[in-house]
Design goal:
This protein is α+β, with helices and mostly antiparallel strands. The chain contains 11 helices and 11 strands. Helices cover 42% and strands 22% of the residues. The strands form 3 sheets. It has a 5-stranded antiparallel β-sheet.
């Protein structure tokens, strides 16, 4: 079932095609009763100011004044993004700056529509869809507190769980920025335990305490360079040149995106390609390459190639074990 905002936009588009759509055709298209369709036509006339008329000889509607169009809205890029992510995304990302941006965008729509027609979020979601990545719930208070620590340069004590070591460590960080990546929120900060910039997943922070002090922030440009140097979001080792050859089918997808700011792509006559980039995290690259299965082959560095061989050999053993178990 269509809602009003979606219907009137599509009715207008259908009429502008010059096909003289009939009442029956429009009712069938939107699965609505004639009364609803007539209400929508009145809405286009009275609220939107369009000259929609019915041509009896052609038994359909037409726009008597084609120069009259539906209202347009002047929205900033941030507002367009806020509208695109939808209510579900906003509710999942509690405490972010998206909520006030969305309210501002909606207010502009209210002001521009004749008669200040109310447009709710559900109507917007029917026209613009966004499918977010699987989300990990974030504690609203922790999000807001850490955001304040970033804004006010407040040192923060953490108890942090690292799944790679299955350990909880205590440390003090100087938080600089909150970053979202693939459905997870991270705080980027200088770690006094490691004496370096590190990222900390918010859902793995078991306890935190904002200190009554101030630290001298690292310039934004340096944080930007640190983030830009990551592959995905990982920073663990020194940068190494990574080369990965992709089979022809996978290569079609590789060419479509910029995977890293240092990347180059070498094309081969058989439709394959080799992606080269500088990465500070071989673990992250390995996980990514594995997602392409047999259509990706690591060429360099040698330790990453060895890691892939070992991982795939273990995976094969798992399947051999499974087959023998199933057979019994």
């Amino acid at each position: 079932m269509s809602n009003r905002l979606e219907r009137v936009c599509r009715i207008d588009a259908e009429i502008r095609r010059g096909t003289y759509p009939s009442v029956k055709k429009l009712c069938d298209m939107f699965e609505v009763q004639e009364r609803t369709l007539y209400d929508d036509i009145r809405f286009l006339r009275d609220r939107m100011g369009l000259d929609i008329e019915f041509d009896r000889s052609k038994a359909g509607y037409f726009n008597k004044s084609p120069e009259k169009t539906l209202p347009s809205f002047e929205l900033t890029n941030a507002e367009v993004f806020a509208l695109t992510i939808g209510k579900d995304m906003l509710s999942a990302y509690t405490g972010t700056s998206f909520e006030p941006i969305l309210k501002s965008a909606l207010e502009k729509i209210y002001q521009r529509l004749p008669g200040k027609v109310e447009v709710n979020i559900e109507e917007l979601r029917s026209m613009i869809r966004f499918k977010p990545n699987p989300l990990t719930p974030v504690n609203r208070k922790a999000f807001l507190d850490l955001n304040r620590a970033c804004e006010k340069n407040l040192p923060t004590e953490l108890k942090y769980y690292a799944p790679s070591t299955d350990e909880v460590t205590e440390r003090t960080i100087y938080p600089h920025r909150l970053v979202e990546h693939q459905g997870l929120w991270y705080v980027i900060g200088y770690c006094t335990l490691r004496n370096d910039l590190r990222k900390f997943a918010l859902h793995r922070i078991q306890h935190y305490h904002l200190l009554d002090a101030r630290f001298e922030p690292i310039p934004d440009q340096e944080i930007d360079r640190w983030l830009a140097g990551a592959f995905m979001i990982e920073h663990r080792e020194s940068e190494q040149l990574v080369k990965i050859k992709f089979a022809a089918r996978a290569a079609n997808y590789i060419r479509e995106r910029i995977w890293h700011n240092s990347q180059t792509i070498e094309e081969h006559p058989d439709g394959t390609c080799t992606l080269s980039l500088q990465s500070p995290s071989l673990d992250e690259v390995a996980r990514w390459v594995l997602s392409y299965g047999a259509e990706a082959e690591v060429l360099a560095p040698s330790d990453l190639r060895d890691k892939m061989q070992s991982t795939l050999a273990k995976a094969l053993e798992n399947y051999k074990s499974s087959n023998s178990t199933l057979a019994t």
